[in-house]
Amino acid sequence: MRVALVGSGSWGLALALLMEARGYETLVFGRESEEFSSLQQTRRSARYLPGFEIPASIRFESLEGARIQCELGILAVPSQAVQETATALASCPHVLIASKGIDRNSGRLLSGLVHDACPESTVSVLGGPNLALEVAKGLPAVTVVASRDPAAAEMARASLMGPMFRVYLSDDVVGVQVAGALKNVVAIAAGMSDGLGLGDNSKSAVVARGLNEMARVGVAMGARIETFFGAAGVGDLFATSASSLSRNYRVGFGLGQGRCLAEIVHDLGQVAEGVESARSAVRLAETHAVPVPIMKVVQSVVDDGLDPRAAVADLMSREAKPEWPGLQLA
Questions:
Q1: pTM for the complete prediction?
Q2: Which residues, 6 or more positions from 304, have their beta carbon under 8 angstroms from its beta carbon?
Q3: Catalytic residue ranges
Q4: 276 Cβ contact partners less than 8 Å away, ≥ 6 residues apart
Q5: What is the CA radius of gyration of the chain?
Q6: What are 81-102's pLDDT values in tens digits?
């Protein structure tokens, strides 16, 4: 089978290694740049996947003007690039979205953008605790593939699943995407808690209440709450909120230490989706009348420069409420 990866960042390269190990003809498409040219020539990327050499069997191709012909196309670009890059996969019968986020301009989930760009393709989405470096190393991991087309979901699972990469199926396309986008924002809050030195009780509260916010937004959009207590929800949230490999956690940690966002992002050298999605996440929640105080303070910190310590004070001084809306105590 012929598989095309659109995206030559850490996640795109990790998935390419996974596909190549499965024995597929694997192509990686990237934008023309000094970084991509170096990757083509040296087959190494100290920036995105340090310590790995990309096998010669994986081909690198320019994304400029490409009309890709393959059985499976995988999108692994930053969420804000999905709309402009998805058209390259319009001729592929199956498209798998490995990107996570919310479109900043329209507020739409990524599957809607891909359906518009690839109307003849079946579309699936990927979600779960999948830190790129660990997947590239072949460490045990699980993921979730969600699609409204059972055959498309099964095709994606068969393509990805191997001895160290287990794939579960779901039809909750909305839930898997909402969980994947919003956990990035919550992970920034978790990183801020650690950066401020607030202790494990504080961070645990952030993660638990953040999951509550994620689930309530998802359910309001038609997702199933069970999705948020599975690998695509709490599993992905835990990895993104706890690991030093997580870009969103590292952004939050730096903010908690008092560093400025521009400096943190520059040093990171890669996109942290939670920064891009914070405002969109809050708007999405407001559209569905769901209060999201943790995500809102993250948005205020990254967009408006709110001091993280003031953000903590804001959260701790909120009116006391039941843990779940509508809960009636006997």
A1: 0.95
A2: none
A3: 183
A4: 78, 79, 80, 101, 104
A5: 19
A6: 999 999 999 999 999 999 999 9
